[in-house]
């Protein structure tokens, strides 16, 4: 199957280095301390953050830092066929672990000892790149909750089909069996915190694909900063400043 | 990070500082250098498809089994591969019985990704009846002792087990060719899986100080490190999977450097795995011919042919209709060359099987002088080579074991026939019967 046409257009009309449309909204869940909805093309994800609050399980309390918990789940209606088990299956467990450790790297946990921060991420529409969308949404939600962070964490995926590195794969391109590289970076520090790849790829091509994904992350980071700035202006306005 | 449980081990600050300070001078607590692996030992169990790996103090076991099941709807022509992990509570005080924890699931998925997406195991050859029956391969990984770096050890164990696993041969029968007949190992030799390449997992540990990075962290180092990455690379230079689940941020240069390091380490480990599997295959074949040590001279090479024999001995059943392959003469020539190399390896073993010159008949078959020297050199208890003489000798010598993955037992037919007679060594040794049967089996074989 051809994923990049001879003119250089992908299945959905994008160029190989073009990302999908991004849209973000802060404050979607009113009960949560911080929440956000993040959309990357057709992939839509909602993240809610509760914390810092008291640790529910005393045995897990840490005296020098905050406990971060994360739960990733996919809504039954998020994929084409109705999903039977939204959470608790192995993929969800792994992604929960990955998101948790990614956010742990940037949250300044030592400022909030003996407390707990819960991040709940729910996928409403899945069209490839759910991991990335979840991390981006979690970043926004954490910022909305006012939790101190070292830097934003942004994430984007890239692949390699028809000998072309492609940025931001959608579901069809993802299930093509080619490599799928998900990168999460700390933009200001320019460090890679999350890197996951599957399927075979020679090392030199890997380097290109990771570079491409990193560029995508930086673009997302710019957008997130704009959104946060806009949100802050709104807050100031409402306070009457 | 593990869930904080009441009985989990906490590292002291002193220990943490000690490890980090030592690493600053490129020293590790167990005396290794930052990019050295611990001692790796791979052992196999008696049955096919079970392996035990020890990487320093880490002890992991993997068992591979196969079952005929329905394929997935989206992939009707492919077999399936599933990895299950069991973090035994005896391995670490923080492991609890019951549902796999996050780290158990993570480990299973890393091993799974390395094998599945990179197509290391050929799943299309596992299809028996398209859309109805395929072989479902299941890999069970048991952690016996957690000395750190479970992922790498588990990966090696899984690969070793896959390489030595043999699945029963099955054929289609019945009126409409829809009935699947699974041949028991006594009837037909089980066949190994087709494995295209070996994806080796190499784990890196990152510390809060930029310049420190280690390979193959121990349990103590794991408690100190702030980030980790597992790169699954094969010896051909392809990256099969990368797993860096958050943690300390590292820049691109370091990442690419890690990939290249992983490639080098993968080469080493692949060689070690292949050697271990080679030895196992040799011994496997040996076990089969052991019974007929008298009749078959072996420089052993573990012809898969012998495998047929072994099954029959071990299981006590006698119908072995294995296909007989090459004629003795052709085998002989092959035998000698490889026989030489194999000789040293199998010296100890071959002693049992190579008879002294007194019972050797130089005129029944042409024998290579090299072969003769070899057999003389590895003097063993004089087993009766009598009648079989060189014929069986040479047959035995053929060590197509190298990569005769396609086990077509050569002597198996021979043996099988003998077994028909009776199951004593004496029977096996009877020259008259043997020769007659040999001819018969040669006909039936191929």
TrEMBL record, chain A:
<dbReference type="InterPro" id="IPR036345">
    <property type="entry name" value="ExoRNase_PH_dom2_sf"/>
</dbReference>
<dbReference type="Pfam" id="PF01138">
    <property type="entry name" value="RNase_PH"/>
</dbReference>
<dbReference type="InterPro" id="IPR015847">
    <property type="entry name" value="ExoRNase_PH_dom2"/>
</dbReference>
<dbReference type="InterPro" id="IPR020568">
    <property type="entry name" value="Ribosomal_Su5_D2-typ_SF"/>
</dbReference>
<dbReference type="InterPro" id="IPR027408">
    <property type="entry name" value="PNPase/RNase_PH_dom_sf"/>
</dbReference>
<dbReference type="InterPro" id="IPR001247">
    <property type="entry name" value="ExoRNase_PH_dom1"/>
</dbReference>
<dbReference type="InterPro" id="IPR050080">
    <property type="entry name" value="RNase_PH"/>
</dbReference>
<comment type="similarity">
    <text>Belongs to the RNase PH family.</text>
</comment>
<protein>
    <submittedName>
        <fullName>Exosome complex component rrp41</fullName>
    </submittedName>
</protein>
<feature type="domain" description="Exoribonuclease phosphorolytic">
    <location>
        <begin position="151"/>
        <end position="216"/>
    </location>
</feature>
<feature type="domain" description="Exoribonuclease phosphorolytic">
    <location>
        <begin position="18"/>
        <end position="148"/>
    </location>
</feature>
<dbReference type="Pfam" id="PF03725">
    <property type="entry name" value="RNase_PH_C"/>
</dbReference>
From TrEMBL, chain B:
<comment type="similarity">
    <text>Belongs to the RNase PH family.</text>
</comment>
<feature type="region of interest" description="Disordered">
    <location>
        <begin position="291"/>
        <end position="359"/>
    </location>
</feature>
<dbReference type="InterPro" id="IPR001247">
    <property type="entry name" value="ExoRNase_PH_dom1"/>
</dbReference>
<feature type="domain" description="Exoribonuclease phosphorolytic">
    <location>
        <begin position="37"/>
        <end position="168"/>
    </location>
</feature>
<dbReference type="Pfam" id="PF01138">
    <property type="entry name" value="RNase_PH"/>
</dbReference>
<dbReference type="InterPro" id="IPR015847">
    <property type="entry name" value="ExoRNase_PH_dom2"/>
</dbReference>
<protein>
    <submittedName>
        <fullName>Exosome complex component rrp45b</fullName>
    </submittedName>
</protein>
<feature type="region of interest" description="Disordered">
    <location>
        <begin position="377"/>
        <end position="446"/>
    </location>
</feature>
<keyword id="KW-0539">Nucleus</keyword>
<keyword id="KW-0963">Cytoplasm</keyword>
<dbReference type="InterPro" id="IPR027408">
    <property type="entry name" value="PNPase/RNase_PH_dom_sf"/>
</dbReference>
<dbReference type="InterPro" id="IPR033100">
    <property type="entry name" value="Rrp45"/>
</dbReference>
<dbReference type="InterPro" id="IPR036345">
    <property type="entry name" value="ExoRNase_PH_dom2_sf"/>
</dbReference>
<dbReference type="Pfam" id="PF03725">
    <property type="entry name" value="RNase_PH_C"/>
</dbReference>
<dbReference type="InterPro" id="IPR020568">
    <property type="entry name" value="Ribosomal_Su5_D2-typ_SF"/>
</dbReference>
<feature type="compositionally biased region" description="Basic residues">
    <location>
        <begin position="431"/>
        <end position="440"/>
    </location>
</feature>
<feature type="domain" description="Exoribonuclease phosphorolytic">
    <location>
        <begin position="197"/>
        <end position="263"/>
    </location>
</feature>
<dbReference type="InterPro" id="IPR050590">
    <property type="entry name" value="Exosome_comp_Rrp42_subfam"/>
</dbReference>
<keyword id="KW-0694">RNA-binding</keyword>
């Amino acid at each position: 199957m051809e994923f990049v046409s001879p003119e250089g257009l992908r299945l959905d009309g994008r160029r190989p280095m073009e990302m999908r449309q991004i849209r973000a909204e802060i404050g979607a869940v009113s009960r949560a301390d911080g929440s956000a909805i993040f959309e990357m093309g057709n992939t839509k994800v909602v993240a809610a953050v509760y914390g810092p609050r008291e640790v529910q399980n005393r045995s897990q309390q840490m005296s020098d830092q905050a406990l971060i918990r994360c739960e990733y789940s996919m809504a039954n209606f998020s994929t084409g066929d109705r999903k039977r088990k939204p959470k608790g299956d192995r993929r969800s467990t792994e992604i929960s672990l990955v998101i948790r450790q990614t956010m742990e790297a940037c949250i300044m946990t030592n400022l909030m000892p003996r407390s707990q921060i819960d991040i709940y991420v729910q996928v409403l529409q899945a069209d490839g790149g759910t991991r990335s969308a979840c991390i981006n949404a979690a970043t926004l939600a954490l910022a909305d909750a006012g939790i101190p962070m070292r830097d934003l964490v942004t994430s984007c995926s890239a692949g390699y089909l028809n000998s072309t590195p492609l940025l931001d794969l959608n579901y069809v391109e993802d299930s093509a069996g080619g490599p799928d590289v998900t990168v999460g970076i700390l933009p200001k520090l320019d460090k890679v915190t999350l890197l996951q790849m599957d399927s075979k790829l020679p090392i030199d091509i890997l380097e290109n694909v990771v570079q491409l994904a990193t560029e995508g992350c930086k673009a997302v980071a710019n957008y997130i900063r704009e959104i946060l700035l806009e949100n802050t202006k709104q807050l100031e306005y409402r306070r009457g400043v | 990070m593990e869930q904080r449980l009441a009985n989990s081990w906490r590292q002291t600050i002193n220990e943490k500082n000690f490890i980090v300070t030592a690493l600053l001078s490129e020293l590790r607590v167990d005396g290794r250098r930052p990019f050295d692996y611990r001692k790796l030992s791979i052992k196999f169990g008696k049955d096919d498809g079970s392996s035990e790996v020890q990487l320093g103090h880490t002890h992991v076991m993997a068992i591979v089994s196969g079952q005929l099941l329905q394929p997935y709807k989206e992939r009707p022509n492919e077999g399936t591969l599933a990895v299950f992990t069991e973090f035994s509570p005896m391995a670490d005080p923080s492991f609890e019985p019951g549902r796999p924890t996050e780290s158990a699931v993570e480990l299973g998925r890393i091993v799974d990704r390395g094998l599945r997406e990179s197509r290391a195991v050929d799943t299309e050859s596992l299809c028996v009846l398209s859309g109805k029956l395929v072989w479902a391969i299941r890999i069970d990984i048991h952690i016996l002792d957690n000395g750190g770096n479970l992922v790498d050890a588990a990966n090696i164990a899984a690969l070793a087990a896959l390489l030595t696993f043999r699945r029963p041969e099955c054929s289609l029968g019945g009126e409409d060719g829809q009935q699947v007949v699974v041949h028991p190992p006594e009837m037909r030799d089980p066949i190994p899986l087709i494995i295209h390449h070996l994806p080796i997992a190499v784990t890196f540990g990152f510390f809060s100080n930029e310049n420190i990075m280690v390979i193959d962290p121990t349990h103590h180092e794991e408690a100190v490190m702030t980030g980790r990455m597992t790169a699954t690379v094969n010896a051909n230079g392809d990256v099969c999977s990368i797993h860096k689940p958050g943690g300390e941020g590292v820049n691109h240069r370091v990442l690419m450097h890690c990939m290249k390091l992983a490639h080098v380490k993968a080469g080493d480990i692949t060689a070690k795995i292949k050697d271990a599997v080679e030895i196992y295959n040799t011994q496997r074949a040996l076990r089969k011919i052991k019974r007929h040590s008298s009749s078959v001279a072996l420089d052993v090479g573990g012809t898969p042919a012998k495998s047929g024999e072994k099954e029959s001995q071990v299981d006590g059943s006698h119908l072995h209709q294995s296909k007989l392959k090459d004629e003795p003469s052709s085998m002989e020539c092959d035998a000698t060359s490889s026989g030489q190399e194999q000789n040293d390896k199998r010296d100890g073993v071959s002693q049992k099987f190579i008879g002294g010159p007194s019972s050797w008949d130089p005129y029944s078959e042409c024998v290579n002088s090299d072969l003769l020297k070899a057999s003389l050199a590895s003097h063993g208890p004089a087993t009766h080579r009598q009648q079989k003489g060189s014929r069986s000798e040479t047959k035995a010598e053929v060590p197509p074991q190298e990569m005769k993955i396609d086990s077509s037992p050569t002597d198996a037919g021979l043996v099988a026939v003998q077994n028909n007679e009776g199951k004593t060594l004496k029977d096996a040794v009877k020259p008259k019967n043997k020769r007659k049967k040999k001819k018969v089996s040669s006909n039936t074989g191929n």
